[in-house]
Amino acid sequence: QKVTVEVLDHLEHLALVDFRDAEGVERLQKAIRFADQLREVNTDGVEPMDSVLEDRCLYLREDDVTEGNCTNELLKNAREKVEEYFVAPPGNIPLPKLEERETFLQGS
């Protein structure tokens, strides 16, 4: 199944992943082919699950705070922050224009 320019554009904006080169487009197409195999699985009569562990009793541990006052240290890991908050998604991936992507899709 071929990936259209519109689908590629939509996925890049959702995930902030750059599929600009032929290798990226091929990797996406392989992932789609792999996921398409799930359509062949017969799920008639199978009830949806909330969790794969829904038939087990899960024991929660106590939530004891052992460290604290490390906000500044944690924020050092942020690529971008506003006040004392991480900015997500970072939005640092420049996406190409639709016309530029058409050339990569034609070759795949």
Structural commentary:
By secondary structure, the protein is mainly α. The chain has a domain at 1-40. It has four helices and two strands. A two-stranded antiparallel sheet has the order 1-2. The model has no long low-confidence stretch (mean pLDDT 79).
Helix content: 25-40%
Shape: flat
Q: How does the helix and strand content classify structurally?
A: mainly alpha
The secondary-structure element order is HHHEEH
Strand content: under 5%
Helix count equals: 4
Pfam family, one: GatC
Protein name: GATC amidotransferase
GO cellular component, one term: glutamyl-tRNA(Gln) amidotransferase complex
GO biological process, one term: mitochondrial translation
Task: Give me some keywords for this one.
two-stranded antiparallel ribbon, 108 residues, transferase activity, 4% strand
Q: Secondary-structure map with pairings?
A:
Elements: H1 5-15, H2 22-36, H3 71-75, E1 81-82, E2 85-86, H4 98-106
Helix pairs in contact: 1-4
Describe the structure concisely for a colleague.
The chain has 108 residues and is mainly alpha-helical.
